[in-house]
Amino acid sequence: MQQKIKSLIESSKLVFRQCQLETGAIVAANSDLNIYPKDVQNYRYVWPRDVSFILAAADLLKIKGMHEPFYNWLMERAEDFSESGLLFQNYYPNGPKRWMGFQPDQNGSVLWSIHSHCRDNLEDAKKHEPLIRKLADGILSVWNGRHFTIISQDLWEENYAYPKFEQNHTYALAACSHGLRLADEILKEEKYRKASEEMKKAIEGSFDRYFLRMNGKLKCLVLHIHFQYLTQETQDSLQLLTLLKKTTPIPTGHSGIPMICTTASSTAALTEEGARDSGRS
Question: Residue 266 carries which DSSP code?
Fold first, then answer.
């Protein structure tokens, strides 16, 4: 058994190394290699969050030389990152965006990766100061103290959080809050700590016996909705979030009003005005 475990570890190390390309990009799977079957699905793309976990494993496995090339790839090749400081859904190995969803947890995850890699001597992390500031300032550029100001996507790429509804994905907030706290530990920047605390407060607001996957301003549901009685804005919101498609009830909140998830796992609601209107029928 011990030999099998050792063999698995060595195989894993080899896979990690093979997934880092000459550019510094680390792909989900290097499907160009002959070891992959001819009909395998192509995952030769970069998800920065996933890379952060790979780099953490590389540290545990004592694999050297993977971190800096990837951090350089982010700064030099990831499309629009050097301008905006934002990381999007995934990228082609040479740098262009492949899919366009903004996933804020990726920024937080890379900040954690840098801190984790240098945790024994945080002074070493300061050589990555331009990247740390770009990641942290990128988060702050789209955070208003309560929610992100642009549409964001969850890490499973299943649903979106809309600024109009003040929605947040709890996991994304947790990753960003922790990443900003670590950035403050390295660079001693009060603005990073402040935003981290704001996000922590927003996370606490999503707790109701369990943490909601997504929280926001709109949370109520009235059953047996008569669509024609709702305001046009509410109708548009319902259509946007596919609220009327195969909903699944979940427990009520403190207010006693049931909350639901759509098939895309989006948490949504009706306005109080719409709720009153639907009750008149």
Answer: -
Flag the least confident range among 61-65, 129-133, 275-279.
Answer: 275-279
All residues at 6 or more sequence positions from 266 whose CB lies less than 8 Å from its CB, including other chains? 159, 160, 214, 241, 242, 243
Q: Is 90 in the same domain as 209?
A: yes
Angle of helix 67-76 relative to helix 48-60, nearest 10 degrees? 160
Domain termination residue (choose one: 192, 214, 236): 214
Q: Answer yes or no: are the C-beta atoms of 237 and 163 closer than 8 Å.
A: no
Structure tokens at 5: 């475990």
3-state helix, strand, coil in the chain (%, to 5): 50, 10, 40
Give Cβ neighbours of residue 106 (< 8 Å, ≥ 6 apart). Answer: 47, 48, 49, 52, 87, 88, 175
Q: Do 237 and 125 fall within a single domain?
A: no
pLDDT (tens digit per residue) in 24-46: 999 999 988 988 888 888 899 99
Counting every residue written for the chain, the total comes to 281
Q: What angle do CA 206, 209, 212 make, to 5 degrees?
A: 35
- The whole-model pTM stands at 0.77
Boundary residue ending a domain (184, 214, 244): 214
Cα dihedral 79/53/213/210 (nearest 10)? -160
